[in-house]
Records
---
Amino acid sequence: MPKSALIVWGGWEGHQPRQVAQIFERVLRGDGFAIEVADTLDAFTDAGKLAALNLIVPVWTMGKISAEQADPVLAAVRDHGVGIAGCHGGMCDSFREHTEWQFMTGGQWVAHPGNDGTNYKVKIGPAKSPITEGLKDFDVSSEQYYLHVDPAVRVLATTQLPVADGPHAPNGPVEMPVVWTKLYGKGRVFYNALGHQANIVESEPCLTLMRRGFAWAAK
């Protein structure tokens, strides 16, 4: 029986959620998942259906989520071991007022100094994982996310800030997590800060990171 995944897309259009969801659907179908795709947060309200999934993939930036929509997701991951995996603002800038969502995902976007088109390096490590096995450090021209990050996450890739100037620069160099995993109750959580728009999601090794992250989160 194939593993099952739910992709839910929407929110701020600047992140091209429909296009990113289509890429994720193609990747997951290629890896043998049975996929449902929805463009409403009401897709989260069926607690029994969510609990029977292997993976939830949110692609939703800067929205508001009700308790009736959020609670079944939290319970599916925490209590039933359903994986959750996503990227960029589609998972860690989804619901700014919902702190439990941030507790689950492991971080929250707060800034991207230099905005889109910032040139920076992503360094693989320090933690080793099958998600990053064989991958080398790589350069990106995109948004460089500054995140507030759960200290419990297992960091699989980092980038050094500052690159662009900003109020963070006087603090000196910091290693900012870009890719991480964590556990939330019984469930596995995967996050990749790359993916501002569909072309970045499609680029390598971003797409390989997402494919492997989906598989890891879905066990």
---
Amino acid sequence: MRVILSILCVFISGVIYAQNPAPADTATKRILLLGGYAHIGNGKVIPQSAIGIANGKITFVMDGKNFKPSRLAFDTIIDVYGKQVYPGLIAMNTSLGLSEIEAVRATNDYNETGSLNASARSIIAYNTDSKVTPTVRSNGILLAQITPRGGLVSGQSSVVELDGWNYEDAAYKMDEGIWLNFPSLQTVKAWWVDSEDDQKKRSEKQMADLNELFYEAQSYAAGNNAVYNPNFEAMKGLFSKSKTLYVRCNYVKDILAAIAFGNKFKLRMVLVGARDGWMVTKEIKENNIPVIIMRTHVLPERDDDDIDMPFKLPVLLVKEGIDVAITDDGFWQDRNVPFQAGETVGYGMDKEDALKSITLTPARILGIDASVGSLEAGKDATIIVSSGDILDMKSSDVQMAYIRGKEINLDNIQKQLYRKYMKKYGLKEAE
């Protein structure tokens, strides 16, 4: 009993020490960010900008070289000369807030049992008290698309702001899309997998199940709904195109089959992964399908692929006029999203296009670009200020963040531990 109590005391003391910052209060101040190098998010830049904020919105973005602000017009004027100002970054396809410790099953709440779970809602499992969220937020991620995993049809994703007391506070756009793990038509030859025949049979069965589900859901959406069905209710928006079908697939065969599937049911579709997308850019472009690239810091898909293919894949797609969003794969990994995008710059991506892939393009895919994704008058004041290049791992240092004009505390457990042990050993904190 004493041992158990001792362990509990240690655990509780650790929890008490590592507190998340409290959510920010509603924005009431009129703020001016003056002199910063503003990256608008749509490809434009203003080397010496003036950005006004009031009631949680951006009121103006302009050249600030000759701007002389009236002290009466603003409650706070913040000098950001020499600093970089960006729209808040957006992480796509993440289990942030749905997973806490990968090795502890009880802390992972991102999938349901069964295969066809269109009605499953990721938003109701979202944990605003996650210790991971502040570590991600301190690298500039201010919004996230939280998505379910598992099965053929995993469920519905939602967009959250990374600040709030509960999921209702954090929710920015609920149930905006449905996630499909497309059955792979690619067979794998290896001793640890099923035979090729068994793989083909499983794929055929999964495709048959998917077609049956979508035909029935389409009929239900047309009004043939005598009996309430939660899965079909959730899928109604797919056929009116108020919801997006996100399709996880990588190989050429699977991408082409997924495009044909989306066209058959006239769906608004986004490809997720698409590691072979560079081989079928024509088909992707012709069907106006955006692509979410999952991680550039990864090995090539095949032995005979170019060694740098993951780094240049987004560049190859963007050059063909395809909308590309870049993200990472996981939840705590999302802190590296800006660096995943930055990697592409060395392979031919324009730096502002790389920024766009983690700001405005994700916002467009999510249908929230009218309010976030770029620094423009009328949009939410969801902004980050860094002393260095946000896309560069070495110089990036986010010093200020605002979500709808609310100043966000950028402290996190890692910073707390850093201060704790610097103090313990009498060392001076890094400047």
---
Amino acid sequence: MILLKNGRIHTPEEVFIGDVLIDGKKIKAVGKNIKPKGNVEVHDIKGLNLFPGFIDAHSHVGIFQEAIGDVGSDGNEWVDPVTPNLRAIDAIYPPDVGFNDALKAGITSVFTGPGSANVIGGQSVVVKTGGSIIVDERIVKNPAGMKMALGENPKRVYGDQKRSPATRMANAALIRDTFYQARVYMEKKEKSKKFNEYNSKYEALIPVLKRQIPVRGHSHRSDDIATFIRLRDEIGFKLVIEHGTEAHLIADYLKKKKVPVVVGPSFSARVKVELKEITFDTPRILWEKGILFAIMTDAPVVPINYLPLMVGLSVKHGLKHHEGVKAITINAAKICGVDKRIGRVKPGYDADITIYEGDPFTVEGTCVATIIDGKVMWGGIK
């Protein structure tokens, strides 16, 4: 067992000086003046900040590999706008340098999956950033969401090919048609013992129709966000908005419709029309309205090790510091559907812990150690 003593613990619901006892891969105890018994490795982390392992709730780490060019680009299947049967786990390369960068910043888990070329892009996963070279042994949840996209990206990809969908109307129509066909397939399969058809696309959509995993809806503009909500209400799936660049413009509507948002990457130029309203005010406004949100990098769009600085810039724009902590810990875990396992410093949770000297949301903050499943994956503790 490992005992971390005298740290400033962010659970993240409260902050106090105390100890954390790790037994194998799990947190065994959290409190003050924990007395070690038996064979316990004790580390005094007085003066350091201890957090739940940080979580990036939207990225493409391991799929759009860094520093190797097109050969490592496995996130978009450009030839078919409907590909729900694609599985992120089949494309993730654990030695991708992005995972090592994540460890250096205290990021212990990421939600990673397909890009936004297709209207229905495929199944995403939650994976630990360190551990086995076999991705299957690092999975927290698979599948964790179904990637879908509205707006400019699928319009551009298929419009350039002189194919549908080339308009926002066609994007939405294609989603409606596909889900209608998937529902018919599902109902026939459930009602008939002699059902012998097989359609991998419709099979992949059954967990979405049964609300077992959410749609992760790529949408920047307010009209695309509203269209995703309209589709959710028509079809009946669970929905998480990804990016939400204009989410602050319709925050009251998002609150009314109870839609969570993964915001970002706000550290970007206005490189396309959809980013015209980009601002680090968005997290603060969503928090003020009581909307569940997380903050992301969209790595490698923004390097994943800058996730804490994305929070810091949001704090600079008025977000409360402790809400920033929650945005990359428990909020991110809730949105990703893994909050019973990661996102808190609490007994029974995975021993995924980030230790910082100073404030992680500033350029002066330094990650001292990153612990995953009870093992130090980056840095060290004395």
---
Amino acid sequence: MIDPAIVPVASVDWAGAVRIIRSVYPPIDLFEDIADPADWPLILSAEQKTNPRLMETIGALDLVPVDRRVGGPGASYLMAPFTHVSRDRPSRFTDGSFGVLYAGRSFEVALFETVHHHTRFMARTNEPAGWTSQFREILLDIRAELRDLRGGDPRHAAALDAADHKESRALAAALRAAGADGVVYPSVRYPGGECAGIFFPDLAANPRQGRHLDYHWDGSRVDLYRDVGAGSVFRIV
């Protein structure tokens, strides 16, 4: 396993980082409310009496320490990646037992990262060609001290493997257990791009919705995306 001690720390201050998510996920009322996050357990206890399915919407709130929860307009975009987790949905820096919020430093990075994962899903389920899922662009600001994998150190290479995430998950678990706030790393889907994976929602701020996007599946790859508001279609090469 990669020794966490050899991974340097970098100050990351990205205004307008980009995250692209499926539009099927609606805002979560509790997170958007003006109530203090410290009061959420009491609110939940009261509301569950009339809405037994409430926890399905909110997810596993206990996975986020009270002092790291965020609330208010747009907070769903920051909280949901940490409360809706599953070992059935692991990713590069988690086995699914804890949440990670991923964002690209630019739109292009976020686009190519999500296109990769959408392509895998469409191919695995043998979907017919056509315009498929709708997505929304989320802009947010990240300011944090993150462990830096961008330096080209060959000792970090296993954490950036394009297909095998065993080492990156083990490294992230060790870093998180040691108190790290997340990682910043080069995109493996968009050369020259950068990504951040943060371990707690309070490391991002000012979440706001950007464009609505459609992806087109040609039967073997995602070849086009559409800016729904503008009506413009762009080819992905």
